[in-house]
Predict the structure.
Amino acid sequence: MKEYKHFINGKYVASQSRKTFENRCPVDGSLLGLIHEAGELEVDAAVKAAKDALKGPWGKLTQAGRTELLNKVAERINERFDEFLQAECLDTGKPHSMASHIDIPRGAANFKAFAETLANHPTESFRLDTPDGKGAVNAGHRTPKGVIAVISPWNLPLLLMTWKVGPAMACGNTVVVKPSEETPATTTLLGDVMNECGVPPGVFNVVHGFGASSAGEFLTSHPLVDAITFTGETSTGEAIMKAASVGLRNISMECGGKNPGIIFADCDLEKAIEGTLRSAFVNCGQVCLGTERVYVERPIYDIFVQRLKEGVAQLKLGRPEDKVANLGPLVSLKHRDKVHSYYQLAVEEGATVEIGGGIPDMGDELNEGAWIEPTIWTGLADDARVVREEIFGPCCHIRPFDSEEEVIELANDTNYGLAATIWTENGARGIRVAEQMETGLVWINSWFLRDLRTAFGGAKQSGIGREGGVHGLEFYTELKNICIKL
Ligand code: NAD
Ligand code: 6OD
């Protein structure tokens, strides 16, 4: 039986309590292995290893030395691509076609991109006049923040974990990662890659377990953790903020969304359909940036609904290795129960189910898996829970609109503020509407098109802070001003 152990100070270690829990594959419910659950003891050992490593060879490495090491890590992930791909697809059930284009390459690229961006960023310098006429020079100086706790989710496990670990390490910090209890495999495997590349012990550590009263809470409330970067649900973010307030530790939060897609009548319909099919259904709807509310300008409303339905009807559910399948299961039976409860609620709230709405019969081999039908609804009121709450499944609600002013108001009528997508061939309108979106990210005529040099993060209840490019510097480093009197 495979065991997923913690990775502490460069070694795989079991929980002293021997407490484990099951890792099951969402494709067919089969048992993949047993995950060790960290208690306070393991979390403490990991945090102390990370603290000590700051003073060891890692702390003495030059920026160039760190860049070289992180580039090696990226290369080694790519060399072991198939192992990462297999591990990620077994844990999540997602198609190989998706993970081999997005999850694994981006998982590697996150190390390369941030090592290079952060190495080349200047700091400020000011000359100050002084009464004696001799002046002073001020110079900004960045130092690592210290031990960074990384709490990551299950939807893009490797990508979203390295998106934090890459810049944290590039800035000279050490990390303790708590991956989602649903998806332990690729984070565990990364420990081996760190050792192969010569990353000093204690720089990258992993502890497994759950959130409240488990590894997540033990880690975020550990007093030697200097800052916490989190990706996950808004309500979890609130709990972590409370833990971080003790000792006044900094936080970076990337949380949930209920993202609008706005389709103007002057859009390129083919592109808008293709783009919305991706933004609402890729990764079985489990992307924080995904579109769950679609607003379509009335002249093209009927044709849009019809065409999107036709697109959904073509989606093929299947095993990760199935070359024609483009949709996997949800991540777990627990998550399927949640998504399915929204499918039932939609009907209770008066939705017209345009397509889907249920649990498919996948045949004996797969019926133990977390499969669900991709679903489109119309006809819900703007205050329906299905229109207001994040579902995180392969589903969207479509509603017509009549004017730019109306759709801006509808799109912004939410507690969330992560991403918006606008489809129009009128460039000026695209920018005008984008400027009025209360979100951290807006895509015009595209979706999830990423440039790692840019700022990424959410407004309102979708997050706090920005990462990406040089923006992560504010979180991952301490900016010290050194004033030299001349
Ligand atoms: P989640 O909040 O349930 O869990 C995320 C992580 O937090 C897991 O590792 C979990 O064990 C841990 N955790 C839970 N409770 C904790 C606690 N009290 N203390 C410390 N750690 C705790 O989220 P999820 O279900 O894994 O992921 C889906 C959610 O993540 C969705 O809401 C989605 O929108 C969001 N998400 C946001 C982004 C973004 O960039 N904004 C990206 C991906 C996912
Ligand atoms: O592309 C990224 O860097 C990123 N953080 C994506 C988040 C996707 C959410 O599911």
The chain has two domains: 3-255+462-485, 259-451.
